């Protein structure tokens, strides 16, 4: 086994680890899509509730009923289900937390940062340049990779990594 083969194997393993993490994040985004949707409207909903203002905010509907002596009652529905204001605010808080966690741990920067330990700027550049294309691997598609000016060991390592990921085996196989 030559030094080139060892380096290609390391690049392939790094790439497989990167794609596994990328695909796990894609699964998490899908699993928590409601939280991400709710987090987008959370500030607006919170403001509407505190101001006693009616409105539709994505999956949230806020209704205000006038009561005796000018008092108001704020009612809400979340995804078509009526909830009290405290429950709504708790759900908004949970959604914000999950969205912040996902947007931090699964950001492009965080995922690419995992490749820094391999100290191969070409591998990092290939990952950055093709980040969205590599998401196709999560559904079993082979991406059209733009290698730019990456040297042969990176090209061969990524190609081997793609094959290893799609075959479901480790990069060493």
Outline of the structure:
This protein is α+β, with helices and mostly antiparallel strands and 173 residues long. It has helices at 3-31, 33-51, 85-105, 108-113, 121-129, 131-134, 152-167; strands at residues 55-57, 60-66, 72-78, 81-83.
Strand segment tally: 4
Terminal Cα span: 14 Å
Basic shape: rod-shaped
Residue windows where pLDDT falls under 50 for at least 5 positions: none
**Sheet of most strands:** 4 strands, antiparallel
Strand content: 5-15%
DSSP helical segment count: 7
What fraction, in percent, of the residue positions are helical? 55-70%
Question: What is Rg?
Answer: 23 Å
How would you spell out the order of helices and strands?
Answer: HHEEEEHHHHH
- Give the structural class: alpha+beta
Q: Strands of the biggest beta sheet: in what spatial order?
A: 1-2-3-4
Mean pLDDT: 92
Please specify the SSE layout and strand pairing.
Elements: H1 3-31, H2 33-51, E1 55-57, E2 60-66, E3 72-78, E4 81-83, H3 85-105, H4 108-113, H5 121-129, H6 131-134, H7 152-167
Antiparallel strand pairs: 1-2, 2-3, 3-4
Helix pairs in contact: 1-7, 2-3
Descriptive notes:
With 173 residues, this protein is α+β, with helices and mostly antiparallel strands. A four-stranded antiparallel beta sheet has the order 1-2-3-4. It starts with a helix and ends in a 6-residue tail after the last helix. The relative contact order is 0.19. The protein contains seven helices and four strands, in the order H-H-E-E-E-E-H-H-H-H-H.
Keywords summarizing the entry:
alpha+beta; 7 helices; rod-shaped; 4 strands; 4-stranded antiparallel beta sheet; 173 residues; single chain
